[in-house]
Design brief:
The complex is a heterodimer of chains A (315) and B (248).
Chain A (H helix, E strand, L loop, with lengths): L1 H15 L2 H26 L8 H18 L3 H23 L4 H21 L1 H4 L26 H23 L2 H17 L5 H27 L9 H14 L6 H17 L5 H15 L3 H9 L11
Helix pairs in contact in A: 1-7, 2-7, 2-9, 2-10, 2-11, 3-4, 3-5, 3-9, 4-5, 4-9, 7-9, 8-9, 10-11, 10-13, 11-12
Chain B lengths: L3 E10 L2 E11 L5 E4 L6 H8 L7 E6 L2 E2 L5 H7 L1 E4 L11 H12 L14 H13 L15 H13 L5 E5 L7 H18 L2 E5 L3 H7 L2 E6 L2 E6 L1 H6 L1 H8 L3
Classes of the chains: A mainly alpha (315), B alpha/beta (248).
Chain lengths: 315, 248
């Protein structure tokens, strides 16, 4: 019920909000998907990726390149983003899952830097520092319906809402599937998983690839929104964002990263209007969260106010 | 042909020969206990057979098939499951989900991404069967970590059955249990292994218990097999008395 309420509010919001806040809403949707993709790997599988910008940025670039050179259809652009980011995740994951703990983390950092440098230095393809601008975006056409202009902010709000909503639903299905329970078990005790007869790495690799796929979709959605892409989308600070959002919201709950992304962006926006040193304040808030609300905001609401998130609880 | 055949098995950790030239045959349906003082190599032997460790030399065959150096998950699929001396379960999953994870593997549903685990009636049914049969029925929705020590050991035994094994290596299945729990557990192991036709090899520190439940006893000392035979023979064996029971 409460979920339907939230969805209803999100659907009518653009009718009342000024454009500025509609844009904030789109950013929240995109980052919520990004954070959720990260937490599929971290919260469910127990693998900390510090290089998720590689997939986010790859999705963003692949979408831009598809729109620029192949077709200005947004669906094809997103598809291009998804395909390339999952291929990149499959390749990077293949090497990373061979290592555990700190070595795994370090390898994701290294690959993240590698992909950033490719994006930054391969000027003929990516435009280097300038990135790719002036990306053509044609309106959506469904049969006999009038064309749906995605450049219009409120239209794109609904478009992202649907894309992210469907993605969240798919991820929800995956984490509650048979495979999802194997991932939880791997997180808990990967050694024991081997002794029920399962090869751990293949499951980790599939989780890694799915995570990269949705991170790439988030990046691609951002490209369409901004009409451009720059190497900033591959930078390591972008890798940190889904981590911070997940911690803020709570990594032990399915909805934690989504709530975290929303809070992160709203707080960031509020502080930015007061001071340009928003990162200092954001850092302070995150430190407080880690110290006083180690379960994140969702974890806190769950335990303190008995607002039941139990269905979405990972462990 | 014996079910399990171990030939000249060796494993050293640095200069310490943890298992040194062990030869052993285990026949189908024979409850075999491996005993020996601390550091005799009992757990190392289990670790080698279950693929947790790689042997330096020697051969391990299951039903005639060479499994030496196979990955642990492959050995499980071939029919050897195990439990650990230090309880090894999924502590933050419920009892039911612990068992379900094992069954997902057995039924090869591990790459099923789209069917919710709660929609899988036959896995649920089979899981509840196992949970009932080990006597954890009223605990099925408890998180594994809040179970008592004895219940966690039992849960691990249940987890070891989920793989539908032909042989089970139980490393001190009753460690840390009181007398009553120990008796219940032993009866449970005997009952279930008989029902399901699982050949059990176990290690155990309680010597009286070992002599009362085993069909066959294997004695290790400093990595070497010093005696094997029926409980009566072992009791009478002077080598065993000297090395293990500390009598002259």
């Amino acid at each position: 019920m409460s979920l339907i309420g939230v969805l209803a509010i999100l659907l009518i919001l653009p009718l009342f909000l000024p454009e500025y806040y509609i844009a904030i809403g789109i950013e929240i949707f995109v980052m919520a998907l990004f954070a959720l993709s990260f937490n599929l790997l971290f919260g469910y599988t127990g693998l900390l990726s510090f290089g998720h910008a590689a997939f986010f940025g790859t999705g963003a670039y692949a979408c831009a390149l598809t729109l620029k050179h192949i077709s200005s259809s947004v669906f094809l652009g997103l598809l291009g983003g998804i395909i390339l980011s999952s291929i990149v995740a499959l390749i990077i994951g293949f090497f990373c899952v061979r290592f555990t703990r700190m070595y795994f983390v370090m390898l994701t950092v290294a690959f993240g830097e590698l992909v950033y440098n490719i994006g930054h230095k391969w000027v003929s393809l990516t435009g280097g520092d300038d990135g790719l601008v002036g990306i053509p975006i044609s309106p959506l056409r469904f049969l006999f319906l009038p064309p749906f202009n995605l450049v219009k902010l409120s239209n794109y709000y609904y478009f992202t809402f649907v894309c992210v909503g469907v993605s969240i639903f798919i991820i929800w299905r995956i984490v509650n599937s048979h495979f999802g329970y194997v991932l939880r078990a791997i997180h808990e005790n990967s050694e024991r998983v081997k002794f029920v007869g399962l090869e751990v790495r293949r499951h980790q690799l599939l989780s890694f690839t799915i995570s990269g796929l949705f991170a790439g979709l988030a990046g691609a959605l951002l490209t369409v929104f901004e009409g451009m892409v720059s190497p900033a989308s591959l930078y390591f600070t972008v890798s940190a964002e889904p981590i911070l959002m997940s911690i803020l919201g709570g990594t032990r709950f399915f909805f934690g990263p989504i709530v975290g992304a929303a809070l992160f962006i709203i707080i960031k926006d509020a502080i930015q209007t007061l001071t340009e040193f928003w990162m200092v304040w954001m850092g302070a808030i995150l430190v407080m969260i880690v110290i006083f609300l180690p379960g994140g905001v969702v974890g806190f609401l769950h335990s303190r106010f008995l607002i039941s998130f139990s269905k979405s609880r990972i462990r | 042909m014996s079910l399990l055949e171990i030939e000249n098995l060796c494993k050293s950790f640095g200069k310490l020969a943890a298992i040194n030239g062990v030869n052993l045959k285990v026949d189908q349906g024979i409850l075999t206990s491996v005993i020996g003082p601390n550091g005799a190599g009992k757990t190392t032997l289990f670790n080698l057979v279950s693929g947790y460790l790689l042997p330096d030399r020697g051969n391990i065959r299951l039903k005639g098939e060479d499994i030496t150096g196979s990955q642990s998950y492959e050995i499980v699929k071939k029919g050897i499951s195990r439990s650990f001396q230090i309880t090894n379960i999924f502590p933050d999953l419920s009892v039911l989900d612990n068992i379900r994870v094992g069954l997902i593997a057995q039924f090869k549903k591990n790459f099923d991404l789209f069917h919710s685990i709660s929609s899988s009636e036959h896995i649920l049914k089979e899981a509840l069967n196992i949970i009932e049969s080990v006597g954890l029925g009223d605990r099925r929705h408890y998180k594994a970590s809040i179970l008592s020590h004895g219940e966690r050991k039992i849960l691990e035994f249940g987890l070891a059955i989920t793989t539908n094994p032909i042989m089970m290596l139980l490393d001190e299945p009753t460690a840390g249990m009181n007398k009553e729990e120990t008796d219940n557990t032993v009866n449970l192991i005997k009952k279930i292994s008989k029902e399901k036709g699982i050949t059990v090899v176990l290690t155990e520190h309680d010597i009286d218990l070992v002599f009362s439940i085993s069909d066959r006893i294997v004695v290790l000392n400093q990595g070497e097999l010093i005696a094997e035979g029926a409980p009566k023979e072992i009791k009478a064996n002077p080598l065993v008395k000297k090395a293990y029971l500390g009598e002259d």
